From TrEMBL:
GO MF annotation terms: peptidyl-prolyl cis-trans isomerase activity
Keywords: Isomerase, Rotamase
Cross-referenced PANTHER family: PEPTIDYL-PROLYL CIS-TRANS ISOMERASE HP_0175-RELATED, PEPTIDYLPROLYL ISOMERASE
Coiled coil regions in record: none
Protein's organism: Candidatus Scalindua brodae
Name of the protein: PpiC domain-containing protein
Pfam families reported for this sequence: Rotamase_2
Record-annotated PpiC domain positions: 96-201
Length: 261
């Protein structure tokens, strides 16, 4: 405790350091308060905000002078995250031309197409044996009431394979897009149990006009642009710094530029 006291009172011999609190920072504190409470802080609340902010600044500066940020995973990741945010903000400044968007749309038009869809009914069974018995009953009497109680929807209209896969699993999804429409099929297994399925119709995938997917193309262009700028920035860092790896860990890093072999 005395060591800490002596350290905090070095100002008697060291040059006084300056910590500035600007009007811009106070305005930022007011804005944060406004977002949370939907009103401006009163004088007392504002004073508490400013003093808490000043305390945070002073503690952070003191911790840094003691080197407390070194080898701290949380601090390191937060600083890296802030740098990534800065790089992303730089990427957002760029605006695509119409030619850029059309080129991207043409190079990967399948990304923007409407996927194949299917309309079908399903009947749920807890056991495979019950499902087989149910299938035989439908062949003798198409109006027979079969199936076990379930919270699953009975009818699915124009759903794509990924949606079905997310709900029932890969095998079930593949069956709905492969069996002959117009009759009951099964049993088809899912993570819930077993099912009979009746496919009413299937619609093939088809391309969508550029204007219909323009916003999606812009989002994809921005994503690719951000990835490119981040990669270029990282490549620049590898040129700026010499990365020295121990012999025992070189194989984990691989032959990337900037690593001392």
């Amino acid at each position: 405790m005395f060591a800490v006291y002596g350290w905090t009172n070095r100002e008697s011999v060291d040059e006084l350091r300056v910590v500035r609190i600007s009007a811009k920072e106070v305005a930022w504190l007011k804005e944060i308060w406004m977002r949370q409470w939907r009103r401006l802080p009163d004088d007392l609340e504002l004073r508490v905000l400013v003093m808490d902010y000043l305390k945070e600044r002073l503690l952070a500066i003191s911790a840094k002078e003691l080197g407390l940020e070194e080898n701290d995973t949380v601090v390191r990741r937060r600083l890296a995250q802030k740098m990534e945010f800065l790089v992303q903000d730089t990427a957002r400044l760029a605006q695509p031309t119409e030619e850029d968007l059309l080129r991207l749309y043409g190079s990967d038009h399948m990304r923007y197409q409407t996927p194949a869809q299917v309309t079908f009914n399903q009947i749920y069974f807890k056991a495979e044996k019950s499902a087989r018995e149910g299938l035989n009953k439908t062949r003798m009497d198409s109006s027979a009431e079969i199936g076990d109680p379930s919270l699953l929807e009975h009818e699915f209209i124009r759903v794509d394979e990924q949606t079905i896969k997310n709900l029932f699993g890969q095998t079930f999804a593949e069956k709905t897009f492969s069996v002959e429409p117009g009759q009951w099929h099964g049993p088809v297994e899912s993570e819930y149990g077993f099912h009979l399925i009746w496919v009413h119709k299937r619609e093939t995938a088809h391309s969508r006009p550029f204007e219909d997917v323009r916003l999606r193309v812009i989002e994809e262009w921005e994503r690719l642009q951000q990835a490119k700028i981040k990669e270029e920035f990282f490549a620049g860092l590898l040129k700026k710094y010499e990365v020295v790896a121990d012999e025992s860990v070189k194989h984990l890093i691989g032959p990337i530029s900037g690593v001392t072999q």
